[in-house]
UniProtKB/TrEMBL annotation:
Lineage, highest ranks first: Bacteria, Pseudomonadati, Pseudomonadota, Alphaproteobacteria, Hyphomicrobiales
Keyword Cell membrane: no
Protein name per UniProt: Polysaccharide biosynthesis protein
Superkingdom per UniProt: Bacteria
Positions of transmembrane segments: 42-65, 86-119, 139-159, 284-309, 321-341, 353-373, 379-401
Keywords: Membrane, Transmembrane, Transmembrane helix
Organism per entry: Prosthecodimorpha hirschii
């Protein structure tokens, strides 16, 4: 697991550095409104990614570990076919959402291409991690980042900056998918349409859990990204650009949590299948503690360097950026804890209670975001997100503690709702 964790951390470090670099480039070179549009396009991608993750990547992550190769091949014949159908079905949804920030083809076209190929690439990354091939996942993302940077650089002087970056990132994801196809462990790399017939009917065996994962994903996005649409609708692209600029420097923190979760979830799933509930619980405790310590170290470094960062990066073009960045720091720290605990609950196949956690957090955030219709300061939007994240974190902690107590009371190593094979 240590080697896989090193690869996963390197993978997330590469992605974090690339995404942070793109955001910093735009913050320093374009108007807040343009940065707001770019951020809106990425928010649409992340929302679609959560739906896709719930219906494809999560079933792959919790169904493959501990299974024989023949069983894995059968599972993938269903889930990879579902992956293709789902991506095609999500494109009209993406087009409608993107149109709210501008209907011009120079924005919508590249953003749609990015959504399609990024979701495809995420399937391949998830497959690599589920099979404990973190090195292959790193290779896939190195290709994506390298090609994206090259393509965006070539387009930068030809088309507007936002279009150049979106087009370059789409090209990079497409190249990464091609590499994943050639290196796929089952000889198809995800290009198949599902092997045997049956389509969505064969997917039914995963649906009873995936539906709760989907509900959780949708409400989690409403909780943690609903502010993007609320600010865009109630305050405009300029204000959204300012809010997102404050969040820019927080990018490495959720990626750090994701790096841990991609490696830890298969390990915890395997431990639970083998009736080693104490090992799974130990993994989430140590992992959450480690992620939070590293996150606090990053935030402390950022605070010390702020007098140097603010004038060079933001240059006075974003009033109140210090308060916004501090608010995002606290909110993101809460969110990383929620990600870690949620990973354990996914491994324990507690999808139904985890969905209700997201519903509660999303409802609290939505109610709070309604206040943006009044004359509240811009930082209020971040506070509304923090309210939902806090509720979700406390609720998740209660569930994890409850699972541990039930295991002890039962006197065995069974954890969660679906730990038994």
């Amino acid at each position: 697991m240590r080697r896989a964790m090193v690869y996963s951390i390197l993978d997330q470090a590469v992605l974090s550095a690339f995404n942070l670099g793109l955001s910093l480039l735009l913050v320093a070179t374009v108007a807040p409104a343009d940065f707001g549009r770019f951020s809106y396009g990425l928010a649409v991608l992340l929302i679609l990614g959560s739906v896709h993750n719930a219906l494809v990547a999560t079933p792959i992550g919790v169904s493959l570990p501990g299974q024989g190769r023949a069983t894995q091949a059968d599972i993938l014949s269903v889930l990879l076919g579902a992956d293709h159908r789902l991506r095609l079905a999500l494109m009209p949804v993406a087009a409608i959402l993107l149109a709210f920030a501008g209907a011009d083809a120079a924005f919508v076209g590249p953003a749609l291409a990015l959504c399609f190929f990024s979701l495809w690439r995420e399937t391949q990354r998830g497959l690599a991690f589920a099979l404990s091939e973190a090195g292959r996942a790193l290779m896939i993302d190195l290709v994506a980042v390298s090609v994206s940077a090259l393509a965006a650089g070539l387009l930068w002087r030809i088309v507007p900056p936002v279009s150049a970056l979106l087009s370059g990132m789409a090209t990079g994801s497409a190249a990464a998918v091609a590499v994943a196809h050639r290196t796929g462990p089952f000889g198809h790399g995800g290009f198949g349409t599902g092997g045997r017939g049956g389509g969505w009917r064969r997917y039914g065996r995963f649906w009873h859990e995936a539906r709760w994962s989907l509900l959780g994903a949708v409400t989690t996005e409403a909780q943690f990204r609903g502010y993007v649409f609320a600010v865009q609708a109630l305050r405009g692209a300029d204000t959204l650009g300012a809010v997102q600029a404050g969040r820019t420097l927080m990018g490495p923190l959720p990626l750090l949590a994701s790096a841990w979760s991609r490696v830890a979830r298969p390990e915890m799933t395997r431990a639970l299948v083998e009736r080693r509930g104490a090992d799974a619980l130990r993994t989430v405790i140590l992992g959450t503690g480690g992620v939070l310590v590293l996150s606090l170290g990053y935030l402390a470094t950022l605070a010390l360097a702020w007098p140097w960062i603010e004038p060079r990066l933001f240059g006075g073009r974003y009033p109140g950026i210090g308060v916004l960045t501090a608010a995002w720091g606290l909110t993101t720290l809460i969110g990383t804890g929620h990600i870690c605990l949620g990973t354990y609950l996914q491994a324990a196949r507690c999808f139904r209670p985890l969905a209700f956690v997201s519903v509660g957090g999303a409802a609290a955030s939505a109610i709070a975001l309604a206040g943006l219709a009044t004359a509240v300061p811009t930082v209020y939007a971040v506070g509304a997100v923090a309210v939902g994240e806090t509720i979700a974190l406390v609720w998740s902690l209660v569930l994890v503690v409850g699972i541990g107590r039930r295991r002890e009371a039962a006197g065995d190593e069974t954890v969660g709702e679906g730990a038994r094979p």
